[in-house]
Amino acid sequence: MDATDRKIIQRLVADGRVSFAALGRLVSLSTPAVHHRVRQLERRGVITGYGARVSPGAIGLGLSGLVAVETAGSLDAIIDAVGAMPEVEACWSTAGTSDLLLKVRVGDPPAMERLLVRLRELVGVDRTRTTILLDTQFEREPDPAALGAAEG
After folding, report:
1. Residues of the chain with pLDDT under 70
2. Which of 27, 93, 140, 152 ranks highest by number of CB atoms within 10 Å?
3. CA 12 to CA 104: how far, in whole Å?
4. How many beta carbons lie within 10 A of that of residue 116, not counting itself?
5. Which of 86, 122, 90, 92 is nearest to 107 (CA)?
6. Nearest Cα to 8, choosing from 44, 50, 38, 53?
7. pLDDT tens digits, 55-84
């Protein structure tokens, strides 16, 4: 990935609906050349998708949490089970005292309690520890410019 690819990615992260012509002007390439580069970035898995960002609170999902899960059973089975729960937005394998860290989002405290009960009832889940998120100070996509800074 070169500096041109990083500029293209930065712009797409800022506005996924930007035209190939506008991207071309930004990086001094023709529209077809930019189109080719974007398709290559997609094929290589650098660009994984495009979409609208939705405010969770605006759609009734105002309570977020991180749930650390300690297991003694089949990790694959637990991951499959939490993957089927729409309240679980992300699941990370971790090192340390817990095996998984889940990012969850629900409407209110009673919904959080119901979700935690369902998680604790999964076969192989020994213990959960929940941290309620009060406010998101910032959250961002990876910045391709940081790669160039780290390399130089």
Report:
1. 147-152
2. 27
3. 27
4. 16
5. 86
6. 38
7. 899 999 999 999 999 999 789 999 999 999
* DSSP summary character for residue 57: G
- Which helix (H) or strand (E) is 63 found in, with range? strand 63-71
- Paired with 90 in beta bridges are 103
Phi, psi of 132 (to 5 degrees): -85, 130
Quote the pLDDT of residue 151: 52
At 97, list the tokens.
Answer: 């005292």
- Tell me the two tokens of residue 23: 């991207």
Q: For residues 124 and 99, what is the distance between their CA atoms, to the nearest angstrom?
A: 11
87 token code pair: 């309240």
